[in-house]
Design brief:
PPR repeats: 106-140, 173-207
InterPro entries: PPR_rpt, TPR-like_helical_dom_sf
Number of helices: 12
Order of helices and strands: EEHHHHHHHHHHHH
Keywords: Membrane, Repeat, Transmembrane, Transmembrane helix
Family: Belongs to the PPR family. P subfamily.
Protein name: Pentatricopeptide repeat-containing protein
Length: 232
């Protein structure tokens, strides 16, 4: 081997609630219009009720001086938002609400929010969240960037973001290299494939079976069978 459309605010009116100085604005907003189908209305109301109960539970535990980070995982709350909320904006607002209450998100929490934004093609907002993450003293990891790499559809943008990741001190994982090489290979771009291979070597990563297979598959995809055999 060689190395190489939502309802308006006027439709629903819910007053903010507070607990000993902690304020949660509209924690249980109804988000379905009056003419919505019953099953959708019930599902939405249950989701909003669950969010409200969780927030109230967190406030009670906090007032009782219970170590909140032990008894209640903010990641769990974020994943509930990801799976059950009415969309990105609801989840982001809840994320900000928790930060305003003084709860410090972890890298897993930030990655969950970044993933949600990237999945909804809100890359600029996701990049802002990445900067917010650093400003809060939480260092992004390779997974933080992989959500961008998975969704971005332009090789140049991916390579630029990869360089930004490395320059910020984040070390790419082998999974990152393999994922990018396979993505470029599927698109039929060999130059970015070899760029990733070279960067991998420059950063001191030894190719493994997965990276060799990704390189070989990219070469075969372009019909370069003889060159591919050199890496077999």
């Amino acid at each position: 081997m060689q190395t190489a459309t939502t309802p308006s605010d006027a439709d629903f009116s819910v007053a903010p609630c507070s607990v000993r100085g902690f304020k949660i604005s509209n924690p249980c907003l109804a988000v379905t219009p009056p003419n919505a189908v019953p099953c959708f209305r019930v599902s939405t109301l249950l989701t909003q009720a669950l969010m409200f109960i969780i927030l109230m539970g967190i406030l009670v535990l906090n007032l009782c001086s219970v170590p909140i980070r032990i008894l209640f995982s903010f990641e769990f709350l974020s994943k509930i938002c990801l799976g059950l909320s009415q969309g990105v904006d609801f989840s982001i607002n809840l994320f900000r609400e928790m930060r305003d209450l003084g709860f410090q998100p972890t890298v897993v929490t930030y990655n969950t929010v970044i993933r949600l934004l990237c999945d909804n093609f809100r890359y600029k907002d996701a990049l802002v969240m990445l900067d917010t993450m650093r400003n809060d003293g939480c260092q992004p990891n390779a997974i933080s960037y992989q959500f961008f790499f998975t969704c971005i559809e332009k090789p140049g943008e991916i390579l630029n973001l990869f360089d930004r990741m490395v320059e910020s001190g984040v070390r790419p994982s082998m999974e990152t290299y393999v994922m990018l090489m396979r993505k470029f290979g599927r698109w039929g771009f060999l130059r970015p494939v070899f760029i990733m291979w070279k960067k991998m070597e420059e950063l001191g990563c030894s190719p493994n079976a997965s990276t060799y297979n990704a390189l070989i598959d990219a070469l075969v995809e372009k019909g370069l069978i003889d060159i591919a055999r050199k890496y077999d």
